[in-house]
Amino acid sequence: AFDRLLAPIDIGGVRLANRVAMGSMHTGFEDRSKDFGRLAAYLAERAEGGTGLIVTGGFAPNVEGWLLPAGSLMATRRAAHKHRAVTDAVHAQDGRILLQILHAGRYGYHPFIRSASGRKSPITPFRPRALSAGGVERTVDAFVRAARLAKLAGYDGIEIMGSEGYLINQFLAAHTNDRTDAWGGTAEKRMRFPVEIVRRVREAVGAGFVVGYRMSLLDLVENGQTWDEVVTLARKLQDAGASMFGTGIGWHEARVPTIVTSVPRAAFVDWTARLKREVEIPVIASNRINTPDVAEEILEHEQADLVQMARPLLADPDFVRKVREDRADEINTCIACNQACLDHTFANKKASCLVNPRAGRETSLVLLPVPKKRQRRIAVVGGGPAGLAAAVSSAERGHHVTLFERGEQLGGQFRLAMRIPGKEEFAETLRYYERRLEVLGVDVRLDTSASEQDLEGFDDVVVATGVRPRVPDIPGIDHPSVVMYDALLRGELEAGRRVAVIGAGGIGYDVSEFLLEDQHKKLPDWQAQWGVTDDPQVPGGLTRKHPAEPRRQVYLIQRKPAPLGKGLGKTTGWVHRAALKDAQVELIGSASYDRIDDAGLHLTVRRSGQTPQSRVLEVDTIVICAGQESVRELVRDGDAGRHVIGGADVAAELDAKRAIAQATELAATV
Ligand code: SF4
């Protein structure tokens, strides 16, 4: 059924087994050669799982191009030899691998940064120095050197990073290039930098070595490239010797989301299709492609020659193998949450994956099969994220697992999350777990509140009973206008037109979005909301935002002083904050709740240095998102056979990442 996805392809003289390319993603293992063993294990596991082509995280061609101080660098023969561990490991699994060369330009997080001009980026604290004409030449040479070294290191080719707003984009766009010499002033001159890089790299490496170029299809910044310029550039790069085009959408500083879960799947594939029509070399589609069905459809409609997935291969290294073996329903799908991958990378931590905590820990978190005589009888109580992960991981090792769930369906907090518009992907995680439980033969008992009697005879009991919402102590909390967030999300009650949401953590934000939208946005509405246009003349593809009329008046309130939403994810929080702003949600910090009655919610706002202000929010509905408490009835302190995980262990913040990791770590040791 996935014939196109599984069809081989030749690129620049290198044969790939299929059309799945693992896109470049910085994991944090690239920065020190002492971590190359772990990097090799991580990439080799993806090659073993059948991935057709792997692209490494970005390596700078020189110190000025570092992303971070003393970050990943490919500038010496000594460095190249260290990469042998990586290339050999991938080749041993019959994989193909490219080294990505990335010069961060003004996105570098260190004082030596250089750019086309001296303009500071809005997302980094350092101001770059403009490269001199000689500096530009030396930078081109550095790319060439890195490409030669990649060949020496055994790579099948390189990818030149020309998207997401890094140095090459900074040359290409008038937004960041005010030069008046041979490298700026007109669109043609701004293009010279990448064209020279590709031309000289090709000359240096010869034929039979992939020279990929990752093209920014849409800059999504003011004064970015127009579509017509993108096409002109593509043709020049093709003539200069590029073997294929990877694609990227949006600079890192762009204020349009491009990969988070609320972005519709394959939202930008029309642009890939347009590029494909203009060039002869293969084009790779990217961004929010996370299932084999979406990928196959893109290939079937000839919108691309390959599909790029980075996060989906963190989530499941066996993605391709499962497709090949007709087990696509067992794929652990990336839900585009960014919580353990990009949020980690941007916080300078090693990347992993919320739904697959083994990602990046291939050598240390291993689920080894247990010999028959060591197989145990394990009861898992609670079918939320922690319980599901514990049950599946334990069963994968060969233990006999019984899963008790007191509700009529599995899923716990995930089942609530998937009702939030833009978070429907959580349904995939449930599909994955339910299918794995079935395949592994786990005894699932729904509608069963496990009693101590039920748990007798098990060698181990895993308490994953989760949380219950905390009811705050507010006079009038029993008023009929009050509803707990879980009941609202389950559809037990329809909110009125004016709603106050108490608690502005992750759940408060989710609930606000749930109140504002009735379903996941369709692509044209989504583009209108964020101001994305396909007009070929518009620089950066960016136009005015046209957010939809909000369905309700929503107030989002917290006790803590403003600003609200500070604790949201590093790479996703701004999207939620922008969505609520566009929907005219009023954010109220420093609030204390006086009472609830027929008039609405009475509160007092105490901002430092100001007189306290009393307000009545005349609302029809008040939704409580004021934290949660652990459900711990089955916890037995001092009992070595009883393990407590997930929300039952710590309820402070709902944290599926911690819950699944904790469950998997437990399963690895029991
Ligand atoms: Fe995907 Fe989330 Fe895993 Fe990142 S952490 S790979 S976004 S599921």
Summarize this entry quickly:
By secondary structure, the protein is α/β, with parallel strands linked by helices. It contains 21 helices and 27 strands. Helix 7 runs parallel beside helix 8, helix 14 packs parallel to helix 21 (656-669) and helix 18 runs parallel beside helix 20.
What do you see in this structure?
- The protein is an alpha/beta fold and 670 residues long.
- It folds into three domains: 9-14 and 21-346, Alpha-Beta Barrel (TIM Barrel); 373-467 and 630-649, 3-Layer(aba) Sandwich (Rossmann fold), CATH 3.40.50.720; 482-626, FAD/NAD(P)-binding domain (3-Layer(bba) Sandwich).
- It is 30% helix and 17% strand.
- The protein contains 21 helices and 27 strands.
- An eight-stranded parallel β-sheet has the order 10-9-8-5-4-3-12-11. It has a five-stranded parallel β-sheet with strand order 15-14-13-16-27, with helices on one face. It has a five-stranded parallel β-sheet with strand order 18-25-19-20-21.
- Strand 20 (553-557), helix 20 and strand 21 (586-588) form a beta-alpha-beta unit.
- Helix 1 (36-48) runs parallel beside helix 3 (84-92).
- It is globular.
- The two termini are 39 Å apart.
- Bound molecules: iron/sulfur cluster.
- The site of iron/sulfur cluster (SF4) has 14 residues, from helix 11.
- Residues 311, 314-315, 334-341, 353-355 line the site of iron/sulfur cluster.
